[in-house]
């Protein structure tokens, strides 16, 4: 390792470490619930007639994949 590589490194500050600890303790959530207007607007959307067929096709493909794309 060259001297230049060593000088480019930084050490996290106390504030950075504390922020990382805080973030690690914070629970993930799905966010806010939709408002009544948002829910109504979503219900009014019409599904493209090809979506169910495409969904089935992609599910079938995923079931036969190896590695990261595999559906368990």
Quick take:
The chain has helices spanning about 5, 15-25, 35-45, 50-65.
Question: Can you give a write-up of this model?
Answer:
The longest helix has 13 residues, at 51-63. The protein has a domain at 48-72. It has helices at residues 3-7, 14-25, 36-44, 51-63. The model has no long low-confidence stretch (mean pLDDT 85). It has 72 residues and is mainly alpha-helical. It is built from four helices and no strands.
Mind sketching the topology for me?
Blueprint: H1 3-7, H2 14-25, H3 36-44, H4 51-63
Instruction: Sketch the major β-sheet.
Output: none
Number of helices: 4
Helix content: 40-55%
Compute the number of strand runs: 0
**Low-confidence regions:** none
**Overall pLDDT, averaged?**
85
List the helices and strands in order. HHHH
Q: What amount of the residues lies in strands? A: under 5%
Structural class based on helices, strands and sheet pairing: mainly alpha
Q: Judging from the principal axes of the Cα atoms, what is the shape?
A: flat
**Distance from first to last alpha carbon:** 43 Å
Radius of gyration: 24 Å
């Amino acid at each position: 390792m060259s001297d230049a590589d060593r000088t480019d490194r930084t050490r996290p500050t106390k504030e950075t470490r504390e922020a990382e600890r805080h973030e690690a303790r914070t629970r993930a959530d799905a966010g806010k619930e939709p408002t009544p207007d948002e829910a109504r607007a979503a219900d009014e959307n019409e599904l493209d007639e090809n979506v169910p067929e495409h969904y089935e096709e992609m599910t079938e493909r995923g079931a036969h994949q190896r590695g990261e794309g595999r559906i368990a």
